[in-house]
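Long-time lurker. I teach an intro course on protein structure, and each term I like to show students one example going from raw sequence to a predicted 3D structure in C-alpha coordinate notation. This year I'd like something fresh instead of my usual example. Would anyone be willing to generate the C-alpha coordinates for the chain below so I can use it in lecture? Attribution to the forum is fine with me.
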Amino acid sequence: MEEQPAHVDEPGGGLDRRAELSEFLRSRRARLKPEDVGMPDYGRHRRVPGLRREELAQLAGVSVAYYTRLEQGNGRNVSGEVLDAIARALRLTDAEHAHLTHLARPKQHKKKPAARTQHVRGALWQLLDTFESVPAYIVGRRSDILVWNRMAAAVFGDWAEMPAQERNWARLVFLRPEYRELFVDWDQKAFDMVAFLRMDAGCHPDDPRLSALVGELSVKSSEFRRLWATHDVKEKSYGVKRIRHPLVGDLALSFETFRLVDDAEQSLITYHAEPGTPSAEGLRLLASWGRDATRAGTGSSTSSN
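-- Reply from a regular --
Happy to contribute to a lecture. Here you go:
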Protein backbone atom coordinates (compact mmCIF):
# COMPACT_ATOMS: atom_id res chain seq x y z
CA MET A 1 0.00 0.00 0.00
CA GLU A 2 1.33 3.44 -0.91
CA GLU A 3 2.12 5.68 2.03
CA GLN A 4 -0.38 8.48 2.54
CA PRO A 5 0.71 12.12 2.81
CA ALA A 6 0.49 13.87 6.14
CA HIS A 7 -2.91 15.20 7.17
CA VAL A 8 -2.91 18.98 7.19
CA ASP A 9 -5.63 21.56 7.60
CA GLU A 10 -5.86 24.52 5.27
CA PRO A 11 -2.68 25.66 3.45
CA GLY A 12 -0.50 27.55 5.90
CA GLY A 13 -2.27 25.92 8.84
CA GLY A 14 -1.22 23.11 11.12
CA LEU A 15 -1.61 19.37 11.20
CA ASP A 16 -5.07 17.86 11.65
CA ARG A 17 -4.97 16.98 15.35
CA ARG A 18 -8.06 14.75 15.24
CA ALA A 19 -6.65 12.72 12.35
CA GLU A 20 -3.30 12.49 14.13
CA LEU A 21 -4.96 11.19 17.31
CA SER A 22 -7.05 8.68 15.38
CA GLU A 23 -4.17 7.28 13.34
CA PHE A 24 -1.81 7.18 16.31
CA LEU A 25 -4.21 5.07 18.38
CA ARG A 26 -4.92 2.75 15.46
CA SER A 27 -1.22 2.26 14.76
CA ARG A 28 -0.46 1.44 18.41
CA ARG A 29 -3.38 -0.98 18.61
CA ALA A 30 -2.35 -2.68 15.36
CA ARG A 31 1.09 -3.58 16.69
CA LEU A 32 -0.30 -5.63 19.61
CA LYS A 33 -1.56 -9.20 19.45
CA PRO A 34 -3.90 -10.80 22.01
CA GLU A 35 -1.11 -13.02 23.30
CA ASP A 36 1.05 -9.92 23.90
CA VAL A 37 -1.39 -8.75 26.57
CA GLY A 38 -2.43 -12.12 27.98
CA MET A 39 -5.70 -12.46 26.11
CA PRO A 40 -6.86 -15.59 24.25
CA ASP A 41 -7.06 -15.41 20.48
CA TYR A 42 -10.25 -17.15 19.42
CA GLY A 43 -10.28 -15.96 15.84
CA ARG A 44 -8.19 -17.76 13.24
CA HIS A 45 -9.03 -15.14 10.62
CA ARG A 46 -8.97 -11.70 12.22
CA ARG A 47 -10.19 -8.90 9.97
CA VAL A 48 -7.85 -6.32 11.49
CA PRO A 49 -4.19 -6.51 12.50
CA GLY A 50 -3.52 -6.41 16.20
CA LEU A 51 -6.10 -5.98 18.93
CA ARG A 52 -9.73 -5.28 18.19
CA ARG A 53 -11.29 -2.14 19.62
CA GLU A 54 -13.40 -4.13 22.04
CA GLU A 55 -10.33 -6.00 23.29
CA LEU A 56 -8.44 -2.76 23.87
CA ALA A 57 -11.45 -1.21 25.61
CA GLN A 58 -11.70 -4.24 27.90
CA LEU A 59 -8.02 -3.97 28.82
CA ALA A 60 -8.35 -0.26 29.53
CA GLY A 61 -11.57 -0.63 31.52
CA VAL A 62 -13.65 1.70 29.34
CA SER A 63 -16.71 1.12 27.18
CA VAL A 64 -16.26 0.20 23.54
CA ALA A 65 -18.34 3.21 22.51
CA TYR A 66 -16.13 5.55 24.56
CA TYR A 67 -12.90 4.16 23.14
CA THR A 68 -14.33 4.22 19.61
CA ARG A 69 -15.11 7.93 19.92
CA LEU A 70 -11.58 8.58 21.14
CA GLU A 71 -10.04 6.59 18.31
CA GLN A 72 -12.16 8.54 15.85
CA GLY A 73 -10.34 11.65 17.03
CA ASN A 74 -12.85 12.93 19.55
CA GLY A 75 -10.80 13.39 22.70
CA ARG A 76 -12.89 16.17 24.23
CA ASN A 77 -13.27 15.92 28.00
CA VAL A 78 -11.19 12.75 28.23
CA SER A 79 -9.62 12.46 31.66
CA GLY A 80 -5.99 11.92 32.46
CA GLU A 81 -6.92 8.71 34.26
CA VAL A 82 -8.55 7.28 31.14
CA LEU A 83 -5.56 8.22 29.01
CA ASP A 84 -3.28 6.56 31.56
CA ALA A 85 -5.36 3.37 31.38
CA ILE A 86 -5.31 3.36 27.59
CA ALA A 87 -1.56 4.01 27.59
CA ARG A 88 -1.02 1.01 29.88
CA ALA A 89 -3.26 -1.19 27.74
CA LEU A 90 -1.38 -0.18 24.58
CA ARG A 91 2.00 -0.67 26.28
CA LEU A 92 3.03 2.87 25.36
CA THR A 93 6.49 4.20 26.10
CA ASP A 94 6.82 7.39 28.14
CA ALA A 95 7.29 9.38 24.92
CA GLU A 96 4.22 7.76 23.34
CA HIS A 97 2.17 8.40 26.48
CA ALA A 98 3.14 12.08 26.38
CA HIS A 99 2.32 12.24 22.68
CA LEU A 100 -1.14 10.74 23.30
CA THR A 101 -1.80 13.33 26.00
CA HIS A 102 -0.69 16.20 23.76
CA LEU A 103 -3.05 15.04 21.01
CA ALA A 104 -6.05 14.21 23.20
CA ARG A 105 -5.83 17.14 25.62
CA PRO A 106 -4.20 20.06 23.77
CA LYS A 107 -5.85 22.69 25.99
CA GLN A 108 -3.91 21.32 28.94
CA HIS A 109 -0.72 22.75 27.48
CA LYS A 110 0.25 26.38 27.39
CA LYS A 111 0.41 27.53 23.80
CA LYS A 112 3.17 29.74 22.45
CA PRO A 113 3.16 31.52 19.11
CA ALA A 114 3.76 28.69 16.66
CA ALA A 115 5.88 30.66 14.22
CA ARG A 116 7.85 32.77 16.68
CA THR A 117 11.53 33.30 15.97
CA GLN A 118 13.78 31.29 18.24
CA HIS A 119 16.64 33.10 19.92
CA VAL A 120 19.61 31.66 21.80
CA ARG A 121 21.02 33.48 24.81
CA GLY A 122 24.41 35.10 24.24
CA ALA A 123 25.93 33.24 27.19
CA LEU A 124 25.15 29.94 25.44
CA TRP A 125 26.96 31.10 22.31
CA GLN A 126 29.99 31.82 24.47
CA LEU A 127 29.68 28.45 26.20
CA LEU A 128 29.78 26.58 22.89
CA ASP A 129 32.93 28.44 21.89
CA THR A 130 34.70 27.15 25.01
CA PHE A 131 34.20 23.54 23.82
CA GLU A 132 37.40 23.51 21.80
CA SER A 133 37.46 19.75 21.21
CA VAL A 134 33.76 18.93 21.67
CA PRO A 135 31.32 19.21 18.75
CA ALA A 136 28.22 20.94 20.10
CA TYR A 137 25.13 22.68 18.79
CA ILE A 138 21.70 23.83 19.92
CA VAL A 139 18.53 22.66 18.18
CA GLY A 140 15.09 24.15 18.53
CA ARG A 141 11.60 23.50 17.24
CA ARG A 142 11.18 21.41 14.09
CA SER A 143 14.80 20.17 14.47
CA ASP A 144 16.12 23.59 13.39
CA ILE A 145 19.85 24.04 14.02
CA LEU A 146 20.16 27.37 15.84
CA VAL A 147 23.76 27.69 17.04
CA TRP A 148 26.89 25.55 16.68
CA ASN A 149 30.61 25.67 17.38
CA ARG A 150 33.63 25.19 15.12
CA MET A 151 34.00 21.51 16.02
CA ALA A 152 30.40 20.78 15.05
CA ALA A 153 31.11 22.40 11.68
CA ALA A 154 34.27 20.33 11.32
CA VAL A 155 32.37 17.08 11.93
CA PHE A 156 28.98 17.73 10.32
CA GLY A 157 29.74 20.41 7.72
CA ASP A 158 29.77 24.19 7.74
CA TRP A 159 26.13 25.10 8.15
CA ALA A 160 27.06 28.80 7.84
CA GLU A 161 27.36 28.21 4.09
CA MET A 162 23.69 27.15 3.87
CA PRO A 163 20.62 29.40 3.71
CA ALA A 164 19.06 29.75 7.16
CA GLN A 165 15.94 27.77 6.20
CA GLU A 166 18.10 24.81 5.17
CA ARG A 167 19.73 24.49 8.60
CA ASN A 168 17.33 21.83 9.72
CA TRP A 169 18.26 18.24 10.59
CA ALA A 170 15.27 16.68 8.87
CA ARG A 171 16.05 18.53 5.64
CA LEU A 172 19.71 17.55 5.84
CA VAL A 173 19.01 13.87 6.49
CA PHE A 174 16.35 13.37 3.84
CA LEU A 175 17.23 15.88 1.14
CA ARG A 176 21.04 16.09 1.12
CA PRO A 177 22.88 13.03 -0.27
CA GLU A 178 26.11 13.86 1.57
CA TYR A 179 24.40 13.22 4.92
CA ARG A 180 23.34 9.78 3.78
CA GLU A 181 27.05 9.09 3.35
CA LEU A 182 28.04 10.83 6.58
CA PHE A 183 25.95 8.66 8.92
CA VAL A 184 27.00 5.01 8.90
CA ASP A 185 23.57 3.98 10.22
CA TRP A 186 21.53 6.40 8.12
CA ASP A 187 18.35 4.34 8.53
CA GLN A 188 18.42 4.79 12.31
CA LYS A 189 19.19 8.50 11.98
CA ALA A 190 16.24 8.88 9.59
CA PHE A 191 13.91 7.00 11.96
CA ASP A 192 15.01 9.19 14.88
CA MET A 193 14.45 12.42 12.96
CA VAL A 194 10.90 11.47 11.98
CA ALA A 195 10.12 10.33 15.54
CA PHE A 196 11.38 13.67 16.90
CA LEU A 197 9.24 15.60 14.42
CA ARG A 198 6.19 13.51 15.38
CA MET A 199 6.77 14.40 19.02
CA ASP A 200 7.01 18.07 18.10
CA ALA A 201 3.86 17.83 16.00
CA GLY A 202 1.93 16.39 18.95
CA CYS A 203 2.96 19.34 21.12
CA HIS A 204 2.35 21.95 18.41
CA PRO A 205 -0.16 20.69 15.83
CA ASP A 206 -1.00 24.30 14.92
CA ASP A 207 2.55 25.17 13.81
CA PRO A 208 2.36 26.17 10.12
CA ARG A 209 6.13 25.91 9.64
CA LEU A 210 6.13 22.36 10.90
CA SER A 211 3.23 21.32 8.69
CA ALA A 212 4.95 22.95 5.70
CA LEU A 213 8.16 21.05 6.49
CA VAL A 214 6.30 17.74 6.81
CA GLY A 215 4.45 18.40 3.59
CA GLU A 216 7.62 19.22 1.67
CA LEU A 217 9.50 16.18 2.97
CA SER A 218 6.52 13.93 2.22
CA VAL A 219 6.56 15.07 -1.39
CA LYS A 220 10.33 14.94 -1.90
CA SER A 221 11.29 11.80 0.06
CA SER A 222 9.61 8.39 -0.12
CA GLU A 223 11.64 7.30 2.93
CA PHE A 224 10.25 10.18 4.98
CA ARG A 225 6.71 9.44 3.78
CA ARG A 226 7.05 5.78 4.80
CA LEU A 227 8.45 6.59 8.25
CA TRP A 228 5.91 9.35 8.91
CA ALA A 229 3.10 6.86 8.29
CA THR A 230 4.32 4.65 11.18
CA HIS A 231 3.39 7.30 13.81
CA ASP A 232 6.43 6.44 15.94
CA VAL A 233 7.54 9.07 18.46
CA LYS A 234 10.74 9.52 20.43
CA GLU A 235 12.43 12.01 22.74
CA LYS A 236 15.97 13.21 22.14
CA SER A 237 18.24 11.50 24.68
CA TYR A 238 21.72 9.96 24.42
CA GLY A 239 23.57 7.26 22.54
CA VAL A 240 26.33 6.70 20.00
CA LYS A 241 26.50 7.95 16.45
CA ARG A 242 28.91 6.48 13.92
CA ILE A 243 30.21 9.04 11.45
CA ARG A 244 32.12 8.32 8.23
CA HIS A 245 34.17 11.50 8.00
CA PRO A 246 35.84 12.29 4.65
CA LEU A 247 39.05 13.50 6.30
CA VAL A 248 39.64 11.36 9.41
CA GLY A 249 37.63 8.22 8.64
CA ASP A 250 35.12 6.50 10.90
CA LEU A 251 34.23 8.13 14.21
CA ALA A 252 32.21 6.59 17.05
CA LEU A 253 30.87 9.57 18.99
CA SER A 254 28.76 9.45 22.15
CA PHE A 255 26.12 12.17 22.26
CA GLU A 256 24.23 13.70 25.16
CA THR A 257 21.12 15.89 25.08
CA PHE A 258 20.58 18.68 27.59
CA ARG A 259 17.19 20.40 27.49
CA LEU A 260 17.51 24.05 28.48
CA VAL A 261 15.80 24.98 31.72
CA ASP A 262 14.61 28.39 30.52
CA ASP A 263 13.37 27.11 27.14
CA ALA A 264 12.31 23.47 26.94
CA GLU A 265 12.02 23.81 23.15
CA GLN A 266 15.79 24.17 22.85
CA SER A 267 18.34 21.41 23.50
CA LEU A 268 22.11 21.43 23.69
CA ILE A 269 23.65 18.40 21.96
CA THR A 270 27.28 17.46 22.63
CA TYR A 271 29.51 14.74 21.16
CA HIS A 272 32.64 13.13 22.55
CA ALA A 273 34.84 10.12 21.91
CA GLU A 274 36.16 7.57 24.38
CA PRO A 275 39.71 8.60 25.39
CA GLY A 276 42.52 6.67 23.74
CA THR A 277 40.43 5.51 20.79
CA PRO A 278 40.91 6.24 17.07
CA SER A 279 37.79 8.38 17.28
CA ALA A 280 39.36 10.54 19.97
CA GLU A 281 42.45 10.94 17.78
CA GLY A 282 40.22 11.88 14.85
CA LEU A 283 38.56 14.64 16.88
CA ARG A 284 41.97 15.85 18.04
CA LEU A 285 43.14 16.12 14.45
CA LEU A 286 40.06 18.07 13.43
CA ALA A 287 40.52 20.42 16.38
CA SER A 288 44.19 20.99 15.55
CA TRP A 289 43.53 21.70 11.86
CA GLY A 290 41.06 24.45 12.73
CA ARG A 291 40.35 26.65 9.71
CA ASP A 292 42.63 24.51 7.56
CA ALA A 293 40.25 21.56 7.82
CA THR A 294 38.20 21.28 4.65
CA ARG A 295 34.97 20.84 6.61
CA ALA A 296 35.80 23.21 9.46
CA GLY A 297 33.52 26.09 10.32
CA THR A 298 34.16 29.80 10.61
CA GLY A 299 35.88 29.56 13.99
CA SER A 300 32.99 30.84 16.10
CA SER A 301 29.43 29.99 17.01
CA THR A 302 26.83 31.02 14.49
CA SER A 303 23.11 31.62 14.70
CA SER A 304 20.52 30.85 12.05
CA ASN A 305 18.34 33.81 13.01
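Some talking points for your students: The longest strand covers residues 249-260. DSSP finds 13 helices and six strands in the chain.
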